[in-house]
């Protein structure tokens, strides 16, 4: 049994506490917006917010999230930064196949919020380094985050 | 204002940015089992016996080689049946590469399925293996197959040559005699991994009537449907394959991926829905890009004209023949269609080895040939003391010339050509005139500028049917409120094919983009489309949609004629802000009826639905051209190469989705520099890959590896292809065609050392830098 | 499947380790453990030490003490505020380990225990570690005595837990860390070199993707007389470095890179960009 707060709601799952968190979220928690691309921590598709911090949910077992807040992209539907990022991703053409997108937006949301000044392109590139995108070459993703960061700080 | 050419939000954009777009990974059916696959630990083994009792004791359902239909098939349908080689079964009795699937198991949970795998007992008989093409060609070498099939015809194998192609035009020998210089070099390209973010997955639901529903990672719903029907002997009317978004592919699902029929077999056996997701490691053992060795010989006159070209190719295709015959044909075509060689010879052999099967990767052999030819162009230019851009301009195949990129059976006359614009614009933007020679540079860090140009075909169609199947289909209907539904089988890899088709239909029917939607479809509700490959999505898929939309337009005018009591020939369809989409009387524009009213009236009066279904084959396969100008910085101390600037120039005809086109060019460039500088899948002597599933050595570019946004510049040539929908051609694969050639040429310009083997890793470059240099030519 | 335990206190953790030393796998962040969990492994007990308050210390006095369960991100947040040169050097290293999300989960202790990049710089700083077990009690060990073999956590007792890392808060004349990775895709670098010098005391440590980091004692002895802030001829050192490094790896490129990193570390910044 593992209990945690999933997207703001108390959630208890019967999965073994050593089941990787991403699998628990997808299979039992219905959080299909958490993608799994590698299960080794390299791609970032499975990124979630754990107590507000971005982490790769394939690198955690469910027990590690016990009693903590887990937020997937769905849980950010009213978050102003995430919502703005979603729009800027869409406007900038930062979405191709879209498989990396949920993880990217989660990381970008945390990145934008953590900074008190508008992020530079280099800051953004460094901030996204743990999230692979094979389609876009990152350029338009960086532009989208830059725009959101600028709007957030001003 | 037309919708074609505008930047508009993706149709699947909201779903994708909110994580709600379903991929095959996300399909979940009640009462579903989870499957896993046991893969061969050895490069070549006969499977004598599989003991599944342990797995069954855990409640797992197992599918063994003995239980699958004894049907030999090719997992990719593209060539006509008599040109299709066949060598594989769903599960083999002889596994021919490490990682080849041998047994499938399905159980209540993923965990139980993996437990079941480890309780299988398999009796193997190890067979000798051969891991490189050169070895495989030796007579004494172990053979992978005793027999394969070409169509219905058996071929008894005497060695490991899967197929050969020999294509000659003119008199190459005479051409070489005429030449003032003959330049010959050997180039190699390695095995590479597609690295699509979504690993292959399938969900299969068996139906009470004996049929199946399949959700899987595919580039063509129809091909997968047909191959599954053939294997399991199910009529196609009972095989349905759903169209879904895919998490990238880059060619890796051009064939039906090996897990799909395993998943189906497990579902049929268990009578329950089954889901099978490839872990990343399995995915790396499922597909790879062909490894090639190319020897290119070119004869040239002092004035820079060519007299002959000859290329010898040995393609290491791995353990299965996924259309290597087509590969050799197009490699010949790419070569023949780049420059005016006058006389031409191509000799290619595709060779089986005990490695992961090779398949297409963005460009299907085109970037490989380009790597040889575009380096050759620079070598020749230097030898003749010519500017590399000028030499290209002198010899390129362009407007009015014959293009046969897709092989000798698919020829078209080039009608639109942006090569000159690309080369001139690129030269200006990169500052080509300021380029200095390698010997003028010194110091630890050295910069160099390089150019390469390439192309790809837009589809594989043409006036006459060739060896390759190419047509597409669409169904378009006008709903009762004047909105429009499109049912297209064309899969969007993410590049925006779907949006392009919507724009094309919207503009044909003068309906706003926002009022046209792509329906959820499957193989059952759509006509045939061969696949989203060969850069044919917009040109062929969009072409078919435009064609069908024309029919709908005729119906709209006819219905409007009944309402307005006018001959349809006197009516016109238009879109304005005040009236929306409407039909008006040409002689009296004040008389009009809106599309909404036409559709509603047609319903109320029981006239019927304005809709059409059709198929269409394009009459040409026009090249979309590409150019890359790249500046690199080489660290001569470590051998590292950094791309510091790049100009990406494309000629896609009319640009349908500007932002997505730019995205395609940049994305392909990012992958291209990865392939140029670091990516390759090496097979160890044991037959295993050296990077068992990512943790260690397969390095794909991150946001910090690609050049920063400010360092990249994108340019679209101004051309119009009258055979394409609204003047459009393709672009997708072209975008990769010349990336690594340009990088290699730039490295040469920086340090005066040419590397003929990809990837140009720091180790390789450092070794080349310290080796005594052979004098060019 | 593996079992899971998350003790609240150090004592509970030590007791579990003591009672089941063979089955228990200490999990701090878990970044190197979770990907390798096998569903059919029913023996292992994962001992999640991630929430034990006693392992979360961060102290900067005459000694700098970093609790083993402090995440890299927590460490970075702390170190940035301190304006301490030793912490500053550690900050530089930690801020380039893996990627930002992994740094939010990976711990300092986990990195040191598996010979990660922090271990390399900490070796050069001659750090000590505090280990504790129920039988052995709490002890201090020099880090260089801990890192024995690749893959082997050479803690003194099988049930030893790494409690904290201790670094002397002293003044250094020179601290340098440099690494070589083939791409930014998060992974252990091909090679990394750390140098710390204070008066006559010069320590050089070498890390790599294949080996546990180690001190290059031959090189160190030779360097004792040298002022590292002044570039000197590499020639006299080169042969010596080779002798010591060639013993570590037989891959010639790897060797070359180590050479380059050492040269940079011991001879000052590289020359400028040249050529167009
Ligand atoms: C994608 C990826 C990228 C990475 N990139 C880098 C990199 O760039 N540089 C780098 O150095 N490392 C890298 N690593 C390795 C690793 O993540 C880090 O070294 C990390 O700091 C390990 O910390 P952890 O808390 O996750 O350790 P864990 O995985 O929890 O543990 C690591 C090992 O140490 C043992 N252990 C942990 N804590 C203790 C303790 N208190 N007492 C006794 N034993 C203990 C564990 O039993 C285990 O054997 C990477 C890993 C991944 C997955
Ligand atoms: S699935 Fe977690 S990082 Fe790739
Ligand atoms: S959009 Fe396909 S991986 Fe990023």
List the helices and strands and how they pair.
The complex is a heterotrimer of chains A (154), B (777) and C (276).
Chain A: E1 2-6, E2 9-13, H1 21-28, E3 47-50, E4 53-56, E5 69-71, H2 80-92, H3 101-114, H4 121-127, H5 139-153
Chain B: H1 13-17, E1 33-39, E2 45-51, H2 53-57, E3 61-63, E4 85-86, E5 94-95, E6 101-107, H3 110-118, E7 121-126, H4 133-136, E8 147-150, E9 153-156, E10 161-169, H5 172-178, E11 181-189, E12 201-206, E13 212-216, H6 221-232, E14 239-242, H7 259-270, E15 274-277, H8 280-284, E16 288-289, E17 291-300, E18 306-318, H9 324-336, E19 344-352, E20 358-359, H10 366-384, H11 388-395, E21 402-403, E22 412-413, H12 419-430, E23 445-457, E24 472-478, E25 484-487, H13 497-509, E26 516-518, H14 537-564, E27 571-576, E28 580-585, E29 588-594, H15 595-604, E30 611-616, E31 623-635, E32 641-651, H16 658-677, E33 712-716, H17 734-737, H18 739-751, H19 762-770
Parallel strand pairs in B: 1-15, 13-14, 16-20, 18-19, 25-26, 32-33
Antiparallel strand pairs in B: 1-6, 2-5, 2-7, 3-6, 4-8, 8-9, 10-19, 11-17, 12-13, 12-15, 17-18, 21-22, 23-31, 24-25, 24-30, 27-28, 28-29, 31-32
Chain C: E1 3-5, H1 10-19, E2 24-27, E3 45-48, E4 58-60, E5 63-67, H2 72-82, H3 85-94, H4 100-103, H5 108-113, H6 117-124, E6 128-133, E7 137-142, H7 143-146, E8 161-168, E9 174-180, E10 191-198, E11 201-208, E12 214-215, H8 217-223, H9 235-246, H10 252-267
Parallel strand pairs in C: 1-3, 2-3
Antiparallel strand pairs in C: 4-5, 5-8, 6-7, 6-8, 9-10, 10-11, 11-12
Helix pairs in contact in C: 2-3, 3-6, 8-9, 9-10
The complex binds flavin-adenine dinucleotide and FE2/S2 (inorganic) cluster (2 copies).
């Amino acid at each position: 049994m593992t209990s945690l707060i999933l997207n703001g709601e108390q959630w208890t799952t019967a999965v073994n506490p050593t089941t990787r968190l991403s699998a628990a979220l997808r299979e039992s928690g219905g959080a299909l917006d958490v993608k799994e691309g590698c299960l080794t921590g390299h791609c970032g598709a499975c990124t979630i917010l754990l107590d507000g911090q971005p982490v790769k949910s394939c690198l955690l077992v469910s027990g590690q999230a016990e009693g903590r807040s887990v937020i997937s992209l769905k849980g950010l539907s009213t978050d102003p930064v995430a919502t703005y990022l979603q729009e800027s991703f869409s406007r900038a053409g930062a979405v191709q196949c879209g498989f990396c997108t949920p993880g990217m937006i989660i990381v970008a949301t945390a990145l934008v919020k953590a900074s008190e000044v508008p992020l530079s392109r280099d800051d953004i590139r460094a901030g996204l380094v743990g999230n692979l995108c094979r389609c876009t070459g990152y350029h338009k993703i960086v532009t989208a985050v830059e725009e959101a960061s600028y709007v957030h700080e001003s | 204002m037309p919708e074609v050419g505008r930047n508009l939000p993706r149709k699947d954009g909201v779903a994708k940015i909110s994580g709600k777009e379903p991929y095959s990974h996300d399909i979940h059916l009640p009462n579903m089992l989870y499957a896993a696959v046991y893969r061969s630990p050895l490069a070549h083994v006969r499977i004598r016996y599989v003991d599944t009792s342990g797995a069954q004791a855990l409640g797992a359902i197992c599918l063994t080689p003995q239980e699958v239909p004894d049907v030999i098939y090719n997992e990719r349908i593209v060539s006509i049946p008599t040109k299709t080689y066949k060598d594989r079964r769903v599960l083999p009795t002889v596994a021919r590469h490490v990682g080849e699937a041998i047994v499938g198991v399905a159980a209540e949970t993923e965990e139980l399925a993996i437990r079941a795998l480890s309780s299988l007992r398999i009796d193997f008989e190890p067979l000798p293996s051969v891991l490189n093409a050169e070895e495989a060609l030796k007579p004494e070498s172990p053979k992978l197959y005793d027999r394969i099939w070409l169509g219905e015809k058996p071929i008894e194998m005497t060695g490991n040559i899967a197929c050969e192609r020999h294509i000659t035009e003119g008199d190459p020998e005479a051409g070489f005699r005429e030449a003032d210089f003959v330049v010959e070099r050997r180039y190699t390209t390695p095995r590479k991994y597609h690295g699509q973010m979504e690993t292959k997955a399938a969900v299969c639901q068996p139906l009470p009537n004996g049929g199946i529903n399949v959700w899987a990672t595919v580039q063509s719903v129809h091909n997968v449907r047909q191959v599954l029907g053939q294997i399991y002997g199910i009529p196609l009317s009972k095989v349905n394959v759903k169209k879904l978004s895919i998490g990238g592919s880059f060619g890796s699902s051009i064939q039906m991926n090996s897990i799909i029929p395993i998943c189906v077999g497990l579902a049929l056996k268990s009578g329950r829905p089954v889901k099978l997701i490839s872990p990343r490691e399995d995915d790396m053992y499922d597909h790879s890009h062909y490894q090639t060795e190319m020897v290119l010989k070119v004869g040239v006159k002092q004035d820079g004209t060519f007299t002959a070209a000859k290329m010898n190719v040995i393609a290491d295709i791995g353990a299965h023949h996924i259309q290597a015959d087509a590969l050799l044909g197009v490699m010949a075509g790419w070569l023949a269609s780049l420059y005016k060689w006058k006389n031409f010879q191509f000799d290619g052999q595709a060779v089986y080895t005990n490695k992961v099967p090779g398949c297409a990767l963005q460009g299907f052999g085109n970037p490989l040939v380009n790597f040889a030819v575009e380096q050759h162009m620079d070598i020749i230019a230097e030898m003749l003391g010519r500017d590399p851009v000028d030499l290209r301009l002198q010899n390129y195949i362009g407007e009015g010339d014959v293009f046969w990129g897709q092989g000798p059976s698919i020829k078209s006359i080039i009608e639109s050509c942006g090569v000159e614009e690309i080369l001139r614009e690129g030269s200006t933007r990169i500052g080509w005139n300021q380029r200095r020679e390698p010997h003028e540079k010194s110091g630890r860090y050295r910069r160099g500028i390089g150019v390469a140009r390439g192309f790809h075909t837009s589809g594989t169609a043409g006036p006459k049917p060739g060896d390759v199947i190419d047509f597409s289909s669409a169904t378009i209907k006008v709903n009762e409120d004047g909105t429009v539904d499109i049912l297209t089988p064309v899969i969007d890899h993410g590049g925006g094919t779907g949006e392009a088709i919507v724009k094309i239909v919207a503009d044909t029917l003068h309906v706003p983009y926002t009022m046209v939607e792509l329906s959820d479809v499957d193989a059952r509700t759509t006509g045939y489309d061969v696949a989203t490959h060969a850069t044919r999505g917009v040109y062929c898929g969009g072409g078919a949609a435009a064609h069908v939309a024309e029919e709908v337009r005729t119906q709209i005018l006819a219905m409007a004629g009944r309402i307005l009591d006018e001959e349809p020939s006197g009516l016109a369809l238009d879109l304005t802000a005040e009236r929306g989409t409407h039909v008006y009387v040409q002689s009296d524009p004040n008389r009009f009826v809106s599309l909404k009213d036409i559709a509603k009236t047609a319903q109320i009066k029981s006239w019927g639905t304005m809709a059409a279904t059709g198929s269409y084959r394009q009459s040409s396969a026009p090249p979309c051209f590409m150019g890359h100008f790249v500046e690199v910085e080489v660290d001569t101390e470590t051998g590292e190469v950094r791309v510091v600037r790049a100009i990406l120039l494309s000629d896609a005809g009319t640009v349908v989705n500007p932002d997505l086109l730019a995205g395609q060019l940049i994305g392909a460039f990012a992958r291209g520099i990865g392939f140029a500088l670091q990516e390759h899948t090496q097979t160890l002597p044991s037959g295993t890959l050296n990077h068992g599933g990512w943790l260690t050595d397969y390095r794909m570019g991150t946001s910090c590896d690609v050049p920063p946004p400010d360092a990249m510049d994108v340019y679209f040539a101004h051309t119009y292809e009258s055979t394409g929908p609204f003047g459009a051609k393709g672009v997708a694969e072209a975008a990769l065609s010349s990336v690594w050639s340009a990088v290699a040429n730039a490295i040469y310009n920086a340090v005066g050392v040419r590397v003929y083997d990809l990837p140009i890793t720091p180790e390789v470059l450092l070794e080349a830098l310290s080796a005594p240099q052979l004098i060019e030519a | 499947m593996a079992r899971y335990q998350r003790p609240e206190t150090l004592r509970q953790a030590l007791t579990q380790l003591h009672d089941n030393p063979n089955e228990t796998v200490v999990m701090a962040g878990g970044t190197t453990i979770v990907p390798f969990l096998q569903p059919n492994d029913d023996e292992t007990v994962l001992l999640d030490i991630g929430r034990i308050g006693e392992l979360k210390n961060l102290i900067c006095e005459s000694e700098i003490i970093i609790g083993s369960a402090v995440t890299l991100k927590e460490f970075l947040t702390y170190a940035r505020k301190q304006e301490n040169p030793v912490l500053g050097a550690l900050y530089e290293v930690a801020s380039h380990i893996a990627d930002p999300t992994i740094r939010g989960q990976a711990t300092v202790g986990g990195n040191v225990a598996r010979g990660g990049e922090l271990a390399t710089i900490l070796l050069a700083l001659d750090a000590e570690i505090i280990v504790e077990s129920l039988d052995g009690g709490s002890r201090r060990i020099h880090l260089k005595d801990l890192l024995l073999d690749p893959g082997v956590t050479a803690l003194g007792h099988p049930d030893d837990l790494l409690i904290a890392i201790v670094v002397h808060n002293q003044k250094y004349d020179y601290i340098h860390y440099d690494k070589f990775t083939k791409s930014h895709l998060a992974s252990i670098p091909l090679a990394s070199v750390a140098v710390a010098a204070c008066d006559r005391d010069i320590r050089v440590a070498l890390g790599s993707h294949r080996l546990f980091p180690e001190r290059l004692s031959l090189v160190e002895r030779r360097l004792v007389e040298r002022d590292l802030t002044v570039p000197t001829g590499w020639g006299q050192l080169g042969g010596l470095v080779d002798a010591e490094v060639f013993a570590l790896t037989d891959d010639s490129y790897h060797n070359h890179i180590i050479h380059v990193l050492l040269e940079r570390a011991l001879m000052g910044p590289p020359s400028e960009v040249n050529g167009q």
